[in-house]
Design brief:
The chain has four helices and five strands; from the N terminus they run E-H-E-H-E-H-E-H-E. It is α/β, with parallel strands linked by helices. It has a five-stranded parallel sheet with strand order 2-1-3-4-5. The chain starts with 13 loop residues before the first strand and ends in a 7-residue tail after the last strand. It has a single domain, classed as Rossmann fold (3-Layer(aba) Sandwich), CATH 3.40.50. Strand 4, helix 4 and strand 5 form a beta-alpha-beta unit.
Length: 121
């Protein structure tokens, strides 16, 4: 039996990588979403993935102090073998970016989420 608002499945585990310090500096509150874990680039290591077992990792294509290539390489080196999606606005050659990152981190299922409008408010 499924009660409305509840599911018999656990929420997927999502790791969102960004500038925790920058968010705090800008007085932004991290959202509290079931299954979501917000971490900084420096937090990415093998023990994190052993503890959380994320289904997907999300970040901006260009972060504060790192970019998707840096993160893909670190994810690959940390043993992560799941999906990694980088969020960006429109790019002139998105397939070139995707291919370059996939080549640098072959164990990762990498793709882009392309959104319209600015990424920050």
């Amino acid at each position: 039996m499924v009660i409305e608002g509840q599911s018999h499945h656990a929420a997927p585990v999502v790791v969102v990588v960004g500038s925790i310090r920058g968010w705090a500096r800008d007085k932004r509150r991290l959202p509290e979403i079931d299954g979501f874990h917000f971490v900084g680039f420096g937090d990415i290591d093998e023990p994190l993935f052993e503890r959380l077992h994320p289904e997907i990792v999300l970040s901006a294509l260009m972060g504060e102090g790192f970019d998707a290539m840096d993160l893909a390489r670190r994810l690959n080196a940390s043993g992560f073998r799941g999906r990694y999606r980088a969020v960006t606005t429109a790019l002139p050659h998105p397939l070139a970016v995707i291919e370059e990152i996939r080549a640098a981190a072959p164990g990762i299922d990498f793709d882009l989420f392309i959104v319209s409008g600015p990424l920050s408010s």
